[in-house]
Structure prediction request, 814 residues.
Amino acid sequence: MIRGGVRRLARMDATEIRWRARSRGHALMDRVTTGLITPIWRREHLLRALAIDGGLASVRGALAKHDWAAAHTELSAHFAQAPQRFVVGPETKAAVIDRVRRGFPGSVRHAAREADGILAGKYDLLGYSGLRFDPLGADAVVDWHLDPVHGRRAPRVAWSAVPFLDPSCGDHKIIWELNRHQHWLTLGRAFWLTGDAKYRGRCVRELRDWLDVNPPRVGINWASMLELALRSLSWVWALALFVDTEAASATDLPWTVDLLVGLDLHLAHIERHLSHYFSPNTHLLGEALGLYVCGLAVPQLAANARRADTGRRILLAEIGRQIGADGGHLERSTHYHRYTLDFYLLALIVARINRDPASVEFECVVSRLASAARLLADDRGRIPHIGDDDGGMLTPVTRRRPDDLRDSLAIAAALLGRPQLSIGRPPEEVNWLLAHAGAHQPVTPGAHTPVRRVRLPSGALDDTGYYVSRTAASDHLVIDGGPHGYQNAGHAHADALSLTFSFRGQPLLIDPGTGCYTSDPDLRERFRSTALHNTVTIDGRPSSVSNGPFHWSRMANCRVDRWQTADAFDFFDGSHDGYHPLAHRRCVLLLHGDLLIVADIIEGSGTHTIAAHWHVDPRWSVKAAGSRAAFIRRRERVRMIVADGTIEAFTADHGAGLGWHSPAYGRVEPATTLRVVRHGHLPMSILTIIELSARNAVRTVAGEPTSHTNGRPARASGFRITRDSSVDYLLIAESAGAAGPSPDALRQIGAVETDARMLFYRSSAGEPLSQMALVDGAHVRTLGGSLSLEAPRVLPQYFADLGSASSTLPDQIR
Prediction:
């Protein structure tokens, strides 16, 4: 351990050493002073925290006299009349209420129902519903240090001494999610739409309650700077939503005074302990966003101009560090990509409202992030759960599911003037986030306004490593062929070359999710394992080996040799070294509207056991027998067929650890896992086929010999697919890297010879070659010479349906 610490120190530059020393010094001072005397909140501190502003003279006068009620009244009047610098506020209230009520008739009932649950002490957090945080004392409203799921409380010690990753504290994610105070947005929505002051009253009471039991820099709720940043943003939302009127029945607590005192100390604490070197990922982005947005939105605090500058500088600098050229977030987690998009969306909105020149750069990065998000989302706006998913959101105004990106994409579409990013009609959230005319004033369509659907082509995020195939029938395939993660890969899973697939807009093959972070180490390990992803294990081993909940001792490196898209098919060819000296190569061919073919080829030597795992969305019922499985959902029926193997089915199997999924953080529910196991000498393969159409059903699938034209065995994988009205052949040449196979390496499969990297062809109705799809080839010829393709150069991709009456033969075919 000492040697490891010395190595880490040797890698640090002088700037990092100084920063760490200064941060450690602040933490040590907090620990010492907390041990001597418990800090308390002091309302009089607001006097020195306020900016020198003539508009605040009456506030300062009341604070000097310790007349907190008068200071609260003056502050309320000031914020109600001051220029609006945040997304919502008194000047946009009437317009937002009108648009939401007219455009979303059920919103008032929904808002009241959600907020009434909070008034009853029930909180829907992460994957949990109706959690109760009942306090020990009768005067409190909430136990802010309790994890009610595991029945544990975090200790009330100096913030840097809280062992929040230790399960003895409970699940810190549950505690922190409540303490983000994002449910205040739910209360604010209900207050605006219903006009009932009880929702504001609940927020005010919770604020006072929270301050009473969370003194400055004491306890788990001061331990994460990201959590302080997100809570600070919620407090700014509360200021914007609740400050415009003071109903007599609300409260006489000087809550605006208390909120500003707390906000100032929150932002000061974040400044001292920014995650430059501890968690320089979305944690740092979120902290910078808190400083930037709060700094611009609340200029009444004297230090906020500096804080906004700090936040702006970090947000701009991290664009080049955390976001790839393709627009993907480099943590390789779809959930954290969504977080990052939302961070920069809010930064862009607030920058425009405040006429900050940084809005130009924020607009560019939002465009890249949103384009990547739209590619990753299916045609219903859902993203697969690739990598970690912590269940949180930045602005849960209507409590949309975190994997539903329609609100983020609609906001980006309006901000950028790119309607093709939006999916369906703009959701209600657009009216809240884009309320200020300085950001963008959306035109919200009525409930029956038609929205033109834009079909996106297949595409790839090459830097991030996601390869996405889309069809006209809303099939959506995502293949993970990228690096294992970002820096220590804390939010990565052992999912090299895994894939997810939605059939006609319905998730079918899924990533089972995350489960938890620290509360159950075995569950954490299982949901990050290779066997819990749609990919292959060898000898029961994972492709990457974890070392604690957020670290890895060994990571698989992926290499993508080919990604080719065409109108009628898409093809992926990649491999990884997670089982070195063995190699797992995966080739995926999606014939639009016909077949999804996955060939897993294990290269190497020796005798081994390989297993392909397929995790099925629980909304499908599964029937498996022999080499076939059927997926049934309502009127849809999809079949899976494997070559030379037997499909095993597992549902809620505790022994094998298969047949589970986590739809949201903290929730683990039964699902079905299919497994195909083969044992033998390498090289060895597993071919999996999914029928996308009931026409021309697959009867059998088997390996097919391949050879060179001189009769020698070819180093290639061949398969024969017998169907009702055709026989299909698939040839995959030996792995030759990105350059592809040698042009003169002619190989024969069935009655056809080719030099292609990949050739799929169909023989039907007496025709030896009635349809073909090839990648990286210039030569295809039937053995009888009746039909051939002779191109003057290697074609990256080519498709021909020679049996179609409307087909026009190209000049090269004769």
